[in-house]
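Lab channel / #folding
Pinned by the channel admin:
"Please post every new chain as: sequence first, then the structure tokens as a reply. Keep commentary short and put observations after the output so the thread stays searchable."

First post following the new format, from NK:
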Amino acid sequence: MSGGDLDHYQRRVGTGLLVGVAIAFVFLGGRLVHINTVLASRLRTVVEKQHTGHMPIPARRGLIFDTRGRIVAGSEEIPSVFADPGLMEDLPSSAAAVASVLSMIPGEVEDIIRQSETPRFCWVKRRVSAAEADAVRAMGLPGFGTLNESVRRYPLGSALAHVLGFVGAEGTGLAGIELQFDRHLHGRDGQVSSIRDVRRRAIWRLEEGTLAVADGGHLMLTIDSIIQHIVEEQLATQIEAFNAESGVVIVMSPRSGDILAMACSPTFDPGAYGSSPPELWRNRALVDPVEPGSTIKPMIVGGALAAGFVSPTDTIFCHNGVYAIPGRVLRDTKPHGNLDVASIITKSSNIGMAIIGQRVGNPALYEIIRQFGFGEPTGIRFPGEGGGIVRGLRQWNSLTTTSVPMGYEVGVTPLQLITAYCAILNRGVLLKPRLVRALLAPDGTPREVFEGPEPMRRVLPEEVACYLTETVLPGVVNRDGGKTSPSGYPMLGKTGTTKLTHKGRRGYAAGAYLSSFVGAAPVDDPQIAVLVMIRRPDVRKGYYGRTVSMPVVRKIVDAALAYLEVPPRRPAEG
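Reply from TO:
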């Protein structure tokens, strides 16, 4: 190659290099412009995430008190061990060391960390002992630490479980009052934001992004834990004595609508709810509808008296225990001839009630049922409350006319039944039942207080209600000469013995009954009303409401009124 050709080649190569460098600079310049415009926001976010840390500050969940200020649900701070995989220098050896102090299988901690869904945080073991937490902290291993978690505690154990409900692992209410008032009890979690170094250690605090924690408020129930204890004990004892399947008890104040006790048996431990089958969690007192049987008869008679279909002086022929009507034959447990209205209830004549139903007719019967609140929730502010089962009037027929007055073809919840019963005791005014007495701020000061009765409507004239409470219902209890009332608190009430349907198919099961009694005392000024329903008692031991449930009501009434310091109306027998 000659010298001229060499110079030409060098010039050409040099020009190519310059053009290449120029193109590279143009590309780099464009890239810088792209980074500083299009990508600027995204990259700034990445940088902030790398250099900024956020530490959550859990709010303290509020306490739940009974009506006298006793704690029935509280929280305890328990340490848990966590890991930050991004800070670990030697995962296998560190994980093995931590596993040894947490009594975990070697390699288990490493597997948990490697399978973590988040790259910078995972729980290694939650709710460890104080000694285990101290041992982890003493190791000083990069990437491992402890955080305190709030754990719900229930001092009453399984008592009141169906009212309180329970709280999940993340501190959220999942059932009962804990769920219904979760927002009030939970509060608002806080957060501390800070600038962190390469090892994620906090260097200084950032005001921006820091959120003050707001602890949860407290809750005061209408429940009295002493009466609750009485109820739980008596219910469990009677279920065992009659080898029954389950039972429900509600104690209510007729004058205020306050629920003083509510129990379902069998029960569960709300602090370890996961160890019990979910079907035990349901509050059957507010959810499950049942055919009320004879316990509904005072409401039907009261409505019939109020509307003028019958009068207290009427005499009804009860066909000596056998009454044939189109489509069925009705029978009483004992033959009766002529009975007045009061005797039809005290002797619990189904035939007498069927004849009253025929006088009233379906449209008026339907109105009586709905007026007492059956067919709709009471509004007690409890999750999942049922409204019972009342079919539309167009679905009623001639058999319904005689079935409803006997307590069949309608489904009511235990809460609906005692609420309706208390309307009679409250001189004919239906009150909204109440389970919560007050919402309290974290410092204990009242935020919202629920005082005084909350009337919904008048369901009976006062004179009709007083006739039932002063003349009719005391006669049910005293039918055998007073032997069922040995204490100093005269009691009134109504029994019920209802056939139960087959599980999973139509028709009534042989030997399966719901034994019920709704009672109140003292007769002259009822302070409490008590409902007891015991499901499927052993028929060989007894199944009538008078035999199975009335004794439980009597024991609860005696113990509760003595505790409430209500003076006896007469000396106790014996």
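NK: DSSP finds 19 helices and 23 strands in the chain.
TO: also worth noting, The chain has three domains: 3-38, 54-221, 225-269+285-563.
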